[in-house]
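User: Hey, quick favor. My workstation is busy. Could you predict this chain's structure for me?
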Amino acid sequence: MQNAETLNTDQIGEFLKVSREIEFTGQSRAAVYDWVGRVLVAQEYAGQGKKQRGILRAYIAKVTGRSLAQVTRLIRLYRATGKVEVKPYHRRRFPRRYTDQDIALLAEVDRAHERLSGPATRCILKRAYEKYGERQYQRLAGISIAHLYNLRHSARYRKLAAVFEPTRPSGVSIGERRKPDPQGRAGFLRVDTVHQGDWD
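Assistant: No problem, here it is.
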């Protein structure tokens, strides 16, 4: 719709009556938010009476395809900040307890001890800090066995702890033809049990 934000209240009311059977949807969230902000500014929403504000809310909901609750939230955002903008998404993350240095240290310990079981590795880490006072093992000394395995399954650990060896040739010869070597013991005679009577 061209210049939809510049309609007056009477024109908006007529539009709502005529377009009851028509549904609208916004193209993108940024475009919808921008349009809603322009409508609220052009119509001077804050200075309107209750009836006019209700008409504007219904008009915005109709044109954008949003629910009245969503439109009310956008209007509340406009009244609080003076503009309607899309908030950037911030993913909530749990704080990391074990750093990349801890994972590298765990990989080093596993390489030195040929990757022992979780409980045995935990005892080594705990002893390194408590008995020998090595400060770099402070965080790993209190690690649970389950989380130790979680660190072992991480991509960084696998990258550090991977050991690549070339394919070793097989030491067992299969199907090799050679003469018998009885090593001084008597051999065995083969008896043909199927053709014993075929003397002719």
